[in-house]
Automatic annotation (TrEMBL):
Native organism taxonomy: Bacteria, Bacillati, Actinomycetota, Actinomycetes, Micromonosporales
GO function term, MF aspect, one: protein dimerization activity
Every Histidine kinase/HSP90-like ATPase domain range: 282-363
Name of the molecule in the record: histidine kinase
Database matches in Pfam families: HATPase_c, HisKA_3
EC number from the UniProt entry: 2.7.13.3
Residue stretches making up the Signal transduction histidine kinase subgroup 3 dimerisation and phosphoacceptor domain: 177-243
PANTHER family: NITRATE/NITRITE SENSOR PROTEIN NARX-RELATED, NITRATE_NITRITE SENSOR PROTEIN NARQ
Key word rRNA processing present: no
Cellular component, GO, one term: membrane
């Protein structure tokens, strides 16, 4: 059966008999109460259709009864379903998940209650016949799993929701880990490397006479400065601190300022999106502008980030030569997968001769 049925019982004769006996007591009581509710509703409806006798108070009572009793009956059907699932869980060890509150699930549970009533009479007779009791208990379990539990569509929807939740948790954990690595590098290796570069710079200024020692210090200083620059780029690529501190507008403006070609930036998102979504939007813009600089032969580019309800739209456009593709394993392909992981979309439109347009739509609830 479905994974939402957590255990599949193989009951012994004693447990089967107790299960059937409790069902034989519960089912007629539930059926009697359901029948009473249905009779009351039918009587009230018949009185309204044939012309109620009495004053307005009685008419109002009939109307309230006709309108309210279906809701009460549906609630009662679900509550009896709770008792029946509890019976299976405690007496047979069969854990049946609770279905959603829909008309279909209510009808299915009501149908099971009718089945349980049909089982009640032979259950009393078979109480003294252990083999038959086991067979009837297994049959009752199979019907209950099918009719008291969620439908296959509900099971699939729950699995899908579970996968979405797990996927979001993985992305959040990955972003948190990137933030931790960024902080560790910034506060540790980057600070020590900066101190080394400063000391080498001071030594370079102190030794003015040409000598092999000065040449070695100059070379070491230049290497330290280059390593510091590369480390800063690496840290910024992990998770830019400005994104967390000042938001998407400032972070994207920083990317544009470092670009060798003019980039027009327009950001209008109102309140901030979740950190994971902002990070994906940031890296989409960063990767797109990097591709513009390296491959597009463009003279200018633009970045537009706007919020439309619960969606964040990111558009990067350039006037380059076009012909770009999202090759497997490339930066944009990886970002497209990351956008899809949060139920977003990334598309590339790059005809030969340009322009190239990278568009992404991300959830920003």
């Amino acid at each position: 059966m479905d994974s939402w049925i957590h255990a599949k019982a193989q009951p012994g004769a004693g447990r089967s008999a107790r299960h059937l006996l409790v069902g034989a007591l519960l089912s007629p009581l539930a059926a009697g109460l359901l029948a009473t509710l249905v009779i009351l509703w039918g009587t009230a409806l018949f009185s309204l259709l044939t012309g109620p006798e009495g004053g307005w108070g009685l008419i109002v009572l009939y109307v309230v009864t006709v309108l309210a009793l279906p809701i009460v009956t549906a609630w009662f059907v679900h509550e009896i379903g709770v008792l029946q699932r509890s019976r299976f869980r405690h007496l047979l060890g069969v854990d049946i998940a609770e279905p959603s509150w829909t008309l279909r699930s209510t009808a299915r549970q009501a149908a099971y209650h009718m089945w349980a009533l049909a089982v009640a009479l032979p259950a009393v007779v078979l109480f003294v016949a252990p083999p038959a009791a086991r067979w009837l208990a297994r049959r009752d379990s199979a019907v209950a799993e099918d009719m008291l539990g969620p439908t296959r569509i509900e099971v699939l929807n729950r699995r899908l929701e579970s996968l979405r939740s797990s996927r979001a948790e993985v992305l959040l954990a990955a972003d948190e880990e990137r933030r931790r690595i960024e902080r560790d590098l910034h506060d540790g290796a980057q600070q020590r490397l900066m101190s080394l570069a400063l000391n080498l710079g001071m030594a370079r200024e102190a030794i003015t006479e040409p000598s092999p020692a000065r040449e070695a210090i100059v070379a070491a200083h230049e290497e330290a400065m280059l390593a510091l620059t590369e480390l800063r780029h690496f840290v910024r690529g992990l998770h830019p601190a400005v994104l967390e501190d000042r938001g998407l507008d400032a972070a994207i403006s920083g990317i544009a300022a470092r670009s060798p070609i003019p980039v027009e930036v327009s950001v209008d998102i109102g309140r901030r999106c979740p950190g994971t979504i902002e990070a994906i939007a940031y890296f989409i813009v960063s990767e797109a502008l990097t591709n513009v600089t390296r491959h597009a032969s463009a003279t200018q580019a633009s970045v537009d980030v706007r919020r439309h309800g619960g969606r964040l739209a990111v558009t990067v456009r350039d006037d380059g030569r076009g012909g770009a593709t999202t090759r497997p394993g490339g930066g944009l392909a990886g970002l497209a997968q990351r956008a899809a992981a949060v139920d977003g979309e990334l598309s590339l439109d790059s005809p030969a001769g340009g322009p190239t347009i990278v568009e992404a739509v991300l959830p920003c609830g």
